[in-house]
Specification:
Keywords: Hydrolase, Metal-binding, Metalloprotease, Protease, Zinc. The chain is mainly alpha-helical. Helix content is 63%, strand content 2%. It has a domain of 139 residues: Oligopeptidase f, N-terminal domain (Butyryl-CoA Dehydrogenase, subunit A, domain 3, Up-down Bundle).
């Protein structure tokens, strides 16, 4: 029997590819547009020193910025999507490089923008709004920029800050090179004595394996690797935290946390509320640990037992056609408008479906203005069906934002980016659970759902709490040593998992394996986004049309026309309180009870 061959790009059926010709009919059209784009740095530079001269000049400049945004969107989407189709084609790698060069030139030419906008006196700007009503469209945009006024330094100080850019990114760069390129791990050994290579890519499949000896060996291998460089890892993370502390102080923020969250207009209370809500509902996690121990049938549960499926003798095969049909049925509660747009995406080649030689891995949605483009590498699995629902959630969020917001407000911020995608996943899960009487299938699905809660809500919150504690230690003037970091991380694992699991010594080194600690208070957004999505999906299923109307009109159509907390409030979820997180965790508790009943 011959092995199934991955097709070349030229062999993929047209209907399974995305319609990039909707952006530019040919490569030549893209190249012509790029030549026009190259003229923009000079055009932008012509406004230097003039933004405060009159209402008309300011409006001209802001409209120019919108035009640049639209052109850049088309050029970037075509170049990057073409490049991802077949990463071995040098031509499209060249396209992305050429475009980046122009981006850099535009950024340099427009470096005057923020200082000049901030320098316009309040009364003068108010006069501009009265003199030209067209400027009112940009009031929120200008207000957001001018809110930075207290954090913008003198020209000489700003120049010095800019000069520290490479140093500020050094810790992330060093960690990446160390962890991704230089660090090697010992082979893991299974119960039959067979060796298995341990890499970043193979580690999770190895600790999911049914062979407990293999899981334990892989677990020991990865943390022995990091542990042998524990002081290097600690010094690197300490440098990252000290850099964040330096920039927050230099820009006159009260903390590195406030500095980071301000970029997305998120109050620090949201971060603290997330941690509090999870702390108040640790009992559900302890119940889950007990259930996992029971279903695995082990005397002691270890951290290398956390990823192996507790329902292992069941699989679901889902073709792409079946996945589309099921997703349409599952998202029917979203109403006719949502479903019609979803069908449009399915029928008009918004999606690049299958793997081909040299195609980029993974999946994503790119919110082009002509329409979204979704990349998949569909493999006929349950995971891939959820990926379809997830990426189409992103796609329709982008579609609604682009169609209903002016260019300046059409992009949504990262804080809300995962809400629409995860809401779709939650609706799909509830549909699947409601439409099966097969106990094995139901248990398999609940296990999948429980793992999402554990890894997204609890785990990411634990990461967020660890990051906050590290930042607070640096702010106090102390140094993050390997012993300190291992102590903090060990204590957090004890708190989050309870007494039902053995606190393996190796797990205390896990902090060294997490690249997100170099992303500047990023991970909490996975947990808040997941909580908001669960709350929204529950409201949609319970309340129907009114909830859907709030969700689509108040949130999906909102772009960044308001701050993210306000947009979510419009949809019926108040992330300034602990309620969405608490409600999501109650659902987690209900699912644990269902799983326990099924197992009996």
């Amino acid at each position: 029997m011959s092995e199934e061959r991955i097709p070349k790009r030229s062999e993929v059926a047209k209907e399974n590819t995305w319609a990039l010709e909707d952006i530019f009919p040919t490569d030549e059209d893209w190249e012509k547009a790029l030549e026009d784009f190259k003229k923009l740095p000079e055009t932008i530079a012509s406004y230097k020193g003039r933004l405060g001269e009159s209402a008309d000049t300011l409006l001209e400049y802001l409209k120019l910025c919108d035009e640049i945004s639209v052109s850049a969107d088309a050029l970037a989407n075509y170049a990057h999507r073409k490049s991802d189709e077949d990463t071995a084609v040098a031509k499209y790698q060249g396209y992305t490089g050429q475009l980046m060069n122009v981006y850099v030139a535009i950024g340099a030419a427009g470096s005057f923008e923020t200082p000049e906008l901030i320098a316009i006196p309040d009364d003068v700007l108010e006069g501009f709004y009265k003199a030209n009503s067209g400027l009112e469209l940009y009031r929120r945009h200008l207000d957001r920029i001018r809110l930075k006024k207290d954090h913008v330094l003198s020209e000489a100080e700003e120049r010095l800050i800019a000069m520290t850019g490479e140093m500020g990114n050094a810790a992330d760069k060093i960690y990446s090179m160390f962890s991704d390129a230089d660090l090697k791990f010992e082979d893991a050994v299974d119960s039959n004595g067979k060796t298995h290579q341990v890499t970043h890519g193979s580690y999770i499949p190895l600790v999911k394996d049914a062979d407990r000896e293999l899981r334990k060996s892989a677990f020991a291998s990865i943390y022995k690797g990091y542990g042998s460089f524990r002081n290097t890892c600690a010094a690197t993370l300490d440098s990252q935290m000290k850099a964040l502390e330096f920039y927050s102080k230099a820009r006159k923020y009260s903390s590195a946390l406030e500095s980071s969250l301000s970029a997305n207009e998120v109050p620090v209370e949201v971060y603290h509320n997330l941690i509090k809500a999870v702390h108040d509902n640790m009992n559900y996690m302890y119940d889950y640990v007990a259930l996992r121990k029971k279903l695995l049938g082990v005397d002691e549960l270890h951290f290398y037992d956390l990823y192996t499926p507790i329902v292992s003798d069941f699989t679901m095969k889902v073709t792409f056609e079946e996945a589309k049909e099921t997703v349409l049925k599952a998202l029917a509660p979203m109403g006719e408008e949502y479903i019609s747009i979803l069908k449009e995406g399915f029928e008009n080649r918004w999606i690049d479906v299958y793997e081909n030689e040299n195609k980029a891995s993974g999946a994503y949605s790119a919110g082009a203005r002509v329409h979204p483009f979704v990349m998949l590498n569909h493999k006929d699995t349950l995971d891939c069906m959820f990926t379809l629902a997830h990426e189409m959630g992103h796609a329709l969020h982008s579609y609604f934002s682009n169609k209903n917001q002016p260019v300046v407000y059409s992009d949504y911020v990262i804080f809300v980016a995962e809400v629409a995608s995860t809401c779709n996943e939650a609706l799909l899960m509830q549909y699947l659970l409601a439409h099966t009487e097969d106990k094995k299938e139901k248990a398999y699905l609940i296990n999948y759902f429980l793992e999402q809660f554990r890894t997204t809500l609890y785990r990411q919150t634990m990461f967020a709490e660890f990051e906050l504690k590290c930042s607070e230690i640096c702010a106090s003037g102390d140094t993050l040593t390997a012993d300190t970091l291992c102590q903090i991380y060990g204590d957090l694992n004890k708190l989050y998992f309870g007494d039902g699991i053995v606190l393996d010594e190796d797990i205390k080194m896990e902090w060294a394996r997490i690249p997100h600690f170099y992303y500047d208070f990023y991970v909490y957004q996975y947990a808040t986004g997941y909580s908001a999505a669960i709350a929204l999906s529950q409201r949609i299923l319970k309340e129907g049309a009114p909830a859907v109307k709030d969700y689509i009109e108040g949130f999906l159509c909102g772009g960044c026309s308001a701050d993210p907390i306000t947009l979510l409030k419009n949809a019926g979820v108040d992330m300034s309180t602990t309620k969405p997180v608490t409600d999501a965790l109650k659902l987690f508790g209900d699912l644990i009870k269902q799983m326990d009943e099924l197992s009996n």
